[in-house]
Design goal:
It contains 14 helices and 8 strands. Helices cover 40% and strands 12% of the residues. α1 packs across α7. It has a domain of 218 residues: Rossmann fold, CATH 3.40.50.
Length: 352
């Protein structure tokens, strides 16, 4: 009997581990509606367990599948501009669960993740084809750095099915995402909330420490992701960036621009989304101004959607554009970007 019990437990734990290392399976679990939604109070609360940030204020509400949306009356639903096709290569800020086709003035909208940009896109020459390359500030090194996701090396790399399976199933257990997935599968249930919040409060009040994944703004009104808010991580708002590195990033962005321009796109835009830290807590250390340095670089060829200046000028304590316990913008911040893009689509159509 003991052997059967031990075998059953081992089999169960192995099953949980295999699920934790598989991104597709975890995505289905998150969106099934049958498991706890750990992001309902923000992805940074999930790490910190600080009760002060257990809030849903100004945060897109969730449907039964776990997707989060803004209230319908605050969401743009513009009239469609005929014969206009919009393609976005972007990250979670513009993901389909955040932005849906009805929110855009284009007749067609599709989203490709920035980590896996398409090598080719078959554009319809009978329509106006618009491409937006949207990148959050911290992803710039991942996407446009040496051997980044937009590099010719990555875009032309062919991997076998066996390699792709190995990427997902054979990653070591100490992988950060795997650990987070394991914690979700085992300890994300409401019964554990009180325990985690008590522990988090004790560590902060007694030792002045928070979870290793987060930090706090100076006034402690916002949780920040550590990748954005220290001085060591690539992509941090405070990483020291040399002029030569800016030159290299701009060169890579130009290569991507020309590659997609040659596919037949009529308009291509670059939209660099600032780290939350860059807007709500730029005074933690010395801000590197990477977005401005790229956007104003004399060699940059691609037109820019300057969301940094827009968010910086509009964000305030009374009208925040980022959620205090999430890494992403809130409904108002998202809608600023949507309205800017839609106005651009309509404006250029009238000019033609």
């Amino acid at each position: 009997m003991k052997k059967i019990t031990a075998f059953s437990v081992a089999f169960l734990l192995l099953g949980i581990y295999l699920i934790a290392v598989n991104g597709d399976w975890m995505g289905k679990i998150y969106n099934s509606g049958y498991f706890p939604n750990i992001n309902q109070y923000g992805d940074l609360y999930k790490f910190s367990s600080l009760k002060k940030f257990k809030i849903q204020t100004q945060f897109p509400y969730l449907d039964k599948k776990g997707y989060y949306w803004c209230e319908p009356d605050s969401t743009p639903h513009p009239e469609k501009v005929k014969n206009t096709l919009l393609y976005i290569i972007g990250d979670s800020f513009t993901a389909p669960i955040i932005m849906t086709p009805d929110m855009f003035a284009s007749e067609y909208f599709t989203h490709h993740h920035i980590y896996f940009p398409p090598t080719t896109i078959a554009v319809d020459s009978n329509h106006r084809n618009i491409l937006i390359i949207e990148v959050v500030e911290k992803h710039l090194p991942i996407c446009f750095g040496k051997s980044g996701t937009f590099s010719t090396e990555k875009l032309t790399q062919v991997r076998s099915l066996k390699q792709k399976i190995g990427d997902r199933v054979l990653k070591p257990v100490d992988n950060k995402i795997t650990n987070q997935n394991l914690e979700y599968l085992l300890f994300s249930y409401p019964v554990f909330d009180g325990i985690k919040e008590t522990k988090a409060a004790f560590n902060k009040n007694i030792f002045g420490k928070t979870d290793v994944n987060v930090s706090l703004s100076r006034d402690e009104s916002n949780l920040l992701h550590i990748d954005e808010s220290d001085t060591l991580h690539a992509g941090s708002s405070f990483e020291k960036i040399s002029n030569s590195k800016i030159d290299s990033l701009v060169s890579s962005i130009n290569e991507a621009y020309l590659r997609y321009k040659n596919m037949g796109f009529d308009e291509i835009y670059l939209s660099l989304i600032p780290n939350k830290t860059s807007i709500v807590a730029p005074d933690l250390f010395t801000y590197n101004h990477i977005i401005e340095r790229i956007q104003h670089h004399p060699a940059l060829k691609i037109p820019v959607i300057d969301v940094y200046s827009m968010l910086k000028s509009q964000h305030s304590e009374k009208k925040p554009l980022y959620h205090p316990s999430d890494i992403h913008w809130n409904c108002m911040g998202r809608n600023f970007w949507l309205n800017y893009v839609n106005n651009q689509i309509v404006k250029r159509e009238k000019e033609q």
